[in-house]
Amino acid sequence: MILGDVEPQTVAIAAAVAVSACCIAYLAWRTAPVYLIAAAVVLAPLAGHWDEVGVPGPLSPDRILLVIALLTVLGKALLAGQLAPSRLHPRAVHWAMLIAVAVAVFSALASRTLWENDPFFRLLQIYGVLPFLVFVTAPLVFQTERDRNVLLAALVALGGYLGLTAILETVGPDALVFPSYILDSTVGIHADRARGPFVEAVTNGTALFTCGIAALIGYIKWQGNSRHIAAAVSVLCLAGTFLTLQRSVWLATIIAAAVVVVFSRELRRFLAPALVAAGVAVALALAAVPGLAAQADDRRTDERPLWDRENTNAAAIRMIEDRPVVGFGWGKYESESTPYFRLSDDIPISRTDIHNMFLTYGVELGLIGLAAWAAAFLFGIGGAIASRAPPEVEPWRVGLLAITIFFVIVGSFVPPTVFPNLIIWTWGGLVWAAACRPDPASHLEIRTGPAQAEAL
């Protein structure tokens, strides 16, 4: 094709895309990667729903920002010589992550699902590729208190938005809920609960709890008005977890909050008054909002979700028993699960999508794949929790313990989603980075580039 055959509009669009790509690449190279990762975390609640705000799904900004951030970190590390074989010292967590990803990729290839839209992006964003890379590159991203504070501020801001949105979804006015698709009952599930931009109440509860813990850390570390804002956000987030009207969220909040009380004297000082304030806010909402008390009681006594989980968990266990070693293949649960359901006179079947993250991996990847992922989680997140964090990172370490407990509890009731996996590996990487802090020369190289570091 010669240039004269191309429409001027196509040429203009291609030129605009090329110029935009160059500008983004330049800005990314000049920007500290922590800002890009923080932005990706803040935008992750929209993952899977960008079409609702006019952005095509393949161009999801959260995914693009995360990929650009990781490429920037790895590119700078490569130029600085930090990726030379002599300077790489793989640990057990690196091998576990590599094996976990290799098992999933091989399973997807064997099942011919690797290039299908949903299985591909589940593997990339949820199971581990991008979250694992965030964890592994964390020592080059979260090097100083200033870097950690960038992520902290992003989480507190996100918590303020999610907490306020949870209240607006419950008491109104609806006109202030943004984006408006949150109130569209045809989008997502749990339209009668506080579900936020996730349009799914359990994931919203996970984000609210995580941001609430971040706000507690902000209260400890910040001064002046910022400290007061963090206090208000923590109360909003804790109240928001109740407004999700999800029993798994309530249970996980209670247990994880108890862990914070037991293991952190610093966080304990503020968690108790925050819980009291959140309790007062919930009591006022129950008294003032028509129907909320009845709705909460209905959720407490509703047995239908329990029946659904009993049916799907039983089917998943039968599938694992049938193919225990390598499973049915990545992304194959939906197409292969029907023969494994059993009709019962006592327990009706209303839905067949599996609501358990661990059983999902067991069904699709077998016990080998589940064990590989569990090993990566144990060495990565567990290793970060068990590490000896410096005093300035200790609140983050205790917070990681709390959100890990929350993550495991909720993961037993819902399928895996983007935000919980991204935030736990990002948070875990931050704590892990403090335990294997790079030398000062590496710090200068990754933030300023090798030439500037040499000059300094």
Task: Set down the secondary structure blueprint.
Blueprint: H1 8-30, H2 33-43, H3 61-79, H4 92-111, H5 117-127, H6 129-141, H7 145-171, H8 201-221, H9 224-243, H10 247-263, H11 265-288, H12 292-301, H13 304-322, H14 333-336, H15 357-386, H16 394-411, H17 418-435, H18 440-448, H19 450-455
Helix pairs in contact: 2-3, 2-7, 3-6, 4-5, 4-15, 5-17, 6-17, 7-8, 7-9, 8-9, 8-11, 8-16, 9-11, 10-11, 10-16, 13-15, 15-16, 15-17, 16-17
Would you write up a description of this structure?
The protein has 456 residues and is mainly alpha-helical. It contains 19 helices and no strands. The protein has a domain at 31-89 and 128-302 and 387-455. The longest helix is centred in the last third of the chain and has 30 residues, at 357-386. It starts with 7 loop residues before the first helix and ends with a helix.
